[in-house]
Amino acid sequence: MKGKYYIVQIIPEDSKEIKKYRVNTKWFTLLKIFLVVVVVAAGFIIYNAARIGHTLVNYEKIRTANAQLVKQNANYEELFSRIDSLWVLEERIQNILGTFIENDSNKINSLIDKNRFAHTPSEKINVDYEGINGWKPMEEKIRLEHIPNVIPVVGIVSKKFSEENDHLGTDFSAQPGDPVFASGSGIVEFAGSKDELGNTIVINHQNGYVTSYSHLKDIRTRKGRTVGKGEIIGTVGNTGNSSAPHLHYTITQNGKEMDPELFINY
Q1: Which of 94, 112, 233, 263 has the highest CB neighbour number within 10 Å of its CB?
Q2: Could you tell me if 205 and 148 are in contact, meaning their C-beta atoms sit under 8 angstroms apart?
Q3: pLDDT at 205
Q4: Half-sphere exposure of 86 (CA within 13 A, CB side)
Q5: Which residues, in sequence order, are CB contacts of 9 under 8 Å at separation 6+?
Q6: How many whole angstroms from its chain centre is CA 110?
Q7: Is the entire prediction scored with pTM above 0.85?
Q8: Best CA proximity match to 232, nearest among 80, 78, 81, 89
């Protein structure tokens, strides 16, 4: 079967000679297919180029938003850290002033008035005013900071010091997770598990006094760290040989066991 043909005539403007070309219809079919393929390919390329451009724009927006979120997260972390520090500072102040469980504003104001002269005047930077005792050197204040006389936990004495019963410390009954405070400034000599005493912290106050805090739930300090009087060092727990949540607290002076209640300022 013979194929069909088209006759293409070309008539020049300045010549009478007419040029004729005989073209098979298959070529026109192929040309149509080629044009369709070109149009589809061009459309596909344009579509993908637009999508890639849109993706790049969104990526830049996401990258900028992510950078802002990272910055905001850092700001939040700093704010949370400051809040935690303020909470710890408030507890230390309340514990030292004896207002941890006091809600009477008149009593609190009275306690604050008693401690009003704890501020060091600028003209007496090396001394501290102590009421009727007159001006005391800063060295004396530092010495007092290292004496373990702050109550280590807000609780009830459940077992007293007794050499006869071989109970060489004081037990304070308290709620699990309640904060435990350093009774004086010093250096942490031990922070970890200690057999029947469970989680224990030992503080050397560098003046002959050594205090220990046992049966803790959490330890919030480490060996070798310097801690301040009233600083939170752990929480009340029930670890070791213990039948109920409590703090076992001991004081030794030059190696001799002392009754902790003789030192605590209630």
Answers
A1: 233
A2: yes
A3: 95
A4: 6
A5: 18, 19, 20, 21
A6: 35
A7: no
A8: 89
Between CA 3 and CA 29 the distance in angstroms is: 13
Chain centroid to CA 31: how far? 72
Asked whether 246 and 235 are in contact (CB, 8 A), the reply is no
CA distance 154 to 178: 8
Q: How many CA atoms lie within 13 A of 106 on its CB side?
A: 0
Q: pLDDT for 49-58, tens place per residue? A: 888 877 777 7
pLDDT of residue 140: 81
Query: Residue 71: what pLDDT?
Result: 82
- The packing angle between helices 25-97 and 105-114, to 10°, is 70
Please give the helix or strand (H or E) that residue 248 lies within, else none. strand 246-253
**What residue has token string 């560098």?**
206
Give me 141's structure tokens. Answer: 């204040």
Instruction: Note the pLDDT of residue 110.
Output: 60
Q: What would the pLDDT profile of 230-253 be if each residue is shown by its tens digit?
A: 999 999 999 999 989 999 999 999
Closest CA to 216 of 261, 166, 167, 179: 179
Can you tell me which residue has the tokens 């344009």?
A: 46
pLDDT value at position 72? 81
Q: What is the CB neighbour count within 10 angstroms for residue 197?
A: 20
Burial 50-77 (b: 16+ CB within 10 A, else e): eeeeeeeeeeeeeeeeeeeeeeeeeeee
Angstrom distance (rounded) from CA 137 to CA 133 = 11
pLDDT of residue 194: 93
Low-confidence ranges of the chain (pLDDT < 50): 1, 99-102, 115-134
Query: Contact 152/205 with Cβ under 8 angstroms?
Result: no
